[in-house]
UniProtKB/TrEMBL annotation:
GO terms for molecular function: inositol monophosphate 1-phosphatase activity; metal ion binding. It comes from Acidovorax temperans. This is Inositol-1-monophosphatase. PANTHER family: INOSITOL MONOPHOSPHATASE, INOSITOL-1-MONOPHOSPHATASE-RELATED. Keywords: Hydrolase, Magnesium, Metal-binding. The keyword Acyltransferase does not apply. SUPFAM superfamilies: Carbohydrate phosphatase. InterPro entries: IMPase (IPR033942), Inositol_monoP_metal-BS (IPR020583), Inositol_monophosphatase-like (IPR000760), Inositol_monophosphatase_CS (IPR020550), Inositol_monophosphatase_SuhB (IPR022337). Mg(2+) binds at E71, D89, L91, D92, D217. Its EC number is 3.1.3.25. Residues 279-311 are annotated as: Disordered. Residues 300-311 have a biased composition (Polar residues). Its cofactor is Mg(2+). It holds the Pfam family Inositol_P.
Length: 311
């Protein structure tokens, strides 16, 4: 830890490294880790719980008057009405971890009156420590980082996350991915959103988008991105995204080019944009396309009115 860092950030780093040590020990024999399922394709392990426990103990020992919002225990610990709230994801990328796929991290952020002011994302497999304090820049292993300088989307590498929960709109996501893939140098799905955002901050990727994320997935990463000179928001480009379950980030030029591509898929998109997305999804479904074609053969007026169906 550095004496030049904010004291609260130093405590967060201590907590993240302690959690990382637990995760690394467990990774040596991942087959013996006990796993339970929160919902379909959404796993939690004894390692998540142990890492979260040591993080909370470390933070509350230093700051007993602070609040806690953690992925596994919610607001069970800490002060209930503090202006200072630690937002914790003890193991982002649990599915990767239980398969031995070495892409996962610890994410810790401090919000003050709802605004993120301290951030740590720690990758224990590489011993990579991403940190940021509001107004002081973003760092990787104490080296200043900046978002990439690429200006043309065709040269850019974009990261994302795939939908995996029951009820997720898979057709819409496939169309979204198709729209992005055709315009970029490549699309990647590492599987840990906090690390994805850290990679945008470091310039390893040029942009990121995903739906269905919770505040503990994005809180720390959001400060890393902005302190590294990037932008982060929802798909329409609005900055108030933290609890809207859609997230887009990138360097300023890339961010500006992603908004018109992804904006129509936002829950905040206009009715016209939503209708066009619905129509595209229907056209990509062989069953729906076949039934539409059959209807047009038997009822020539159907195609003229079908676009006016309610969303």
């Amino acid at each position: 830890m550095s004496s030049n860092l904010h004291p609260m950030l130093n405590v967060a780093i201590k907590a993240a490294r302690a959690a990382g040590a637990i995760i690394n020990r467990a990774a040596l024999d991942v087959e013996s880790v006990r796993i339970s399922q929160k919902q379909i394709n959404d796993f939690v392990t004894e390692v998540d719980h142990a890492a979260e426990k040591i993080i909370i103990e470390t933070l509350l020992t230093a700051y007993p008057g602070h609040g806690i919002l953690a992925e596994e225990s919610g607001q069970e610990y800490g002060a209930k009405h503090s202006d200072f709230v630690w937002v914790i994801d003890p193991l982002d990328g649990t599915t990767n971890f239980i398969h031995g796929f070495p892409v996962y991290c610890v994410s810790i952020a401090l919000t003050v009156k709802g605004k993120v002011e301290q951030a740590v994302v720690y990758d224990p497999t590489r011993n990579d420590l991403f940190t940021a304090t509001k107004g002081r820049g973003a760092f990787l292993n104490e080296r200043r980082i900046r978002v990439s300088k690429r200006t043309q989307l065709k040269d850019c590498l974009i990261s994302t996350g795939f939908p995996f929960r029951p009820g997720d709109n898979f057709k819409s996501y496939m169309n979204m991915m198709s729209d992005v893939m055709q315009r970029t140098a490549g699309l990647r799905r590492p599987g840990a959103a906090a690390l994805d955002l850290a990679y945008v901050a470091a310039g390893f990727t040029d942009g990121f988008f995903e739906t269905g994320l919770s505040v503990w997935d994005v809180a720390a990463g959001s400060l890393l991105v902005t302190e590294a000179g990037g932008l982060i928001g929802n798909f329409t480009g609005e900055a108030d995204f933290m609890e809207q379950r859609e997230c887009m980030a990138g360097n300023p030029r890339v961010y500006g080019q992603l908004v018109p591509i992804l904006g129509k898929y936002s829950k905040f998109a206009s009715a016209g944009d939503k209708a066009s997305v619905r129509q595209a999804a229907a056209e990509d479904s062989p069953i729906e396309s076949a039934s539409t074609a059959e209807e047009e053969l038997t009822n020539p007026d159907a195609s003229a009115s079908s676009g006016d169906a309610p969303f």
